[in-house]
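pinging the channel bc i need a second pair of eyes. not urgent but kinda urgent?? the chain im working w is below, pasted from the shared doc
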Amino acid sequence: MRDHFAILADAIDRNNGALVKTICDAVMASFASCADAVRAAFESQAELCARAADVGGELVLKAGVHAGTCSVESGRVAEETQGSEREEGL
């Protein structure tokens, strides 16, 4: 699991991102642009899939990108989602 998070954190750092929090085996990160976020996701996928293949496994990586306004309020990330508020706890 440490290697998993190290791979994700490295890709986030290389692509102008900041790790916000971890959720089980997932991460929430903030990026300077959508392109940076997508590039980090592709880099993470390439490295994680290569590691899985090295041990005879297969991996499916899922990623989501939010391109709207968000803010941190009372330790929670809040975003505007089609006119309604969505919050993710930190």
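so Confidence is low (pLDDT under 50) at residues 83-87. and The helical segments are 2-14, 34-54. — does that match what u expected or am i reading it wrong
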